[in-house]
Design goal:
Layout: H1 2-15, H2 24-38, H3 43-63, E1 68-79, E2 82-93, E3 97-101, H4 108-115, E4 123-128, E5 131-134, H5 140-144, E6 147-150, H6 162-172, H7 178-191, H8 207-220, E7 225-229, H9 237-252, E8 256-260, H10 264-270, E9 273-278, E10 281-286, H11 288-294, H12 298-307
Parallel strand pairs: 3-8, 3-9, 6-7, 7-8
Antiparallel strand pairs: 1-2, 1-4, 4-5, 9-10
Helix pairs in contact: 2-3, 6-7, 6-8, 7-8, 8-9
Bound molecules: adenosine-5'-triphosphate and magnesium ion.
């Protein structure tokens, strides 16, 4: 818990808390009020004005919010006549970690795939870092580069080395020279603790290690957002921890993340917010302790009673 608080404070410090560290305007008002009172201006008025200014500064501090990284408005998706996403609205702030929970078939994967434009929703607007994209846009490939995604099944190319897998997108999509790509690939593999396996093949490493390579592959594209769809659910239990550790590290570094997972320990420790999806709708959301210990919606309660 301490880790999370620190993380949050760090993030706020980096973006939102600037005005709170800038008491200068307040001091200037005080100096002015003394100076001007000696010139005969009513000190009560000055103090009143000072109070208003102070309140204004406080308010500005609160208003100076962390910018929104992902904004989803009225997202709806049908498969044939089956409406699987029903008017989803969701904002995720820069550096925020949102964990998505919900029953099988509730639409969690579809939601992530729509955010990444792997699936086309029929209705809605998605913005990433202020760039608004209609689901009907023709420039979806551009936004897809901003959004990294890690799946339950890591889908590494079996005939390519670990490094080959990580640099594939850099060379083919970003047009990077192989030298430059390998340099970045090394950094990414190092980040997930897999650098020493760079020259081996996927079949020679464990599932957990493959998943860490898949994370490195996504990170190599320098996405602004990372989406994780049950990244540990296909892993043997003893391999889950290392993958979660990599994800925790990413969160701590300030990556904006949406994570579909039923790893409740991870959600409690790392998530800023948990959202519960039921039949294609976000029906409850809140801080992890609120959702896990004090959910209000009967459907959330019922779901949690089965998995906690
Ligand atoms: N390609 C598809 N064609 C038709 N229906 C689909 C397709 N993909 C998903 N669906 C349906 O959409 C609904 C939502 O599926 P989705 O995979 O998003 O659920 P989920 O919450 O991720 O479930 P799980 O926890 O099992 O992964 C389900 O009813 C599913 O059957
Ligand atoms: Mg799914």
């Amino acid at each position: 818990m301490v880790e999370i608080n620190d993380k949050y404070i760090e993030k706020k410090g980096a973006t939102g808390s600037k005005t709170k560290e800038e008491p200068a305007p307040k001091n200037i008002v005080v100096a002015n009020s003394i100076e001007e009172s000696s010139e005969g201006i009513d000190i009560a008025d000055r103090l009143k004005e000072e109070k208003i200014l102070e309140a204004d500064i406080e308010k500005k501090g609160d208003d100076l919010e962390i910018p929104i990284m992902i904004q989803i408005k009225n997202l709806s998706k049908w498969y044939g006549k089956h409406k699987v996403l029903k008017n989803i609205n969701l904002s995720v702030k820069t550096g925020e970690v949102v964990v998505v929970i919900g029953a099988s078939g509730s639409g969690k994967s579809t939601m992530l795939r729509c955010i990444n434009f792997l699936e086309k929703a029929q209705k809605g607007i998605i913005s990433i870092d202020g760039k608004e994209i209609s689901v009907k846009s023709k420039k979806l490939h551009l936004i897809r580069q901003e959004v990294g995604m890690v799946f339950q099944h890591f889908n590494l190319f079996p005939h390519r080395t670990i490094m080959g897998n990580v640099i594939e997108g850099l060379v083919k999509v970003k047009g990077m020279s192989s030298h430059e790509a390998i340099e970045r690939g090394k950094k990414m593999l190092d980040k997930v603790g897999m650098l020493e396996k760079a020259d081996t093949y996927p079949s020679m490493i464990s599932g957990g290690q493959q998943q860490r390579v898949a994370i490195a592959r996504a990170l190599a594209m320098e996405p602004k957002v990372m989406l994780f769809d049950e990244p540990t659910s296909a892993l043997d239990p003893e391999l889950v921890g290392d993958v979660l550790l990599v994800m925790k590290k990413l969160a701590k570094e300030g990556m904006t993340m949406i994570v579909v997972t039923h790893e409740m320990g991870f959600a409690r420790e790392v998530a800023d917010r948990v959202i519960f999806v039921d039949e294609g709708e976000v029906i409850e959301e809140g801080a992890p302790n609120i959702i896990f210990d004090n959910a209000q919606n009967p459907r959330t309660k019922e779901f949690l009673s089965k998995i906690l």
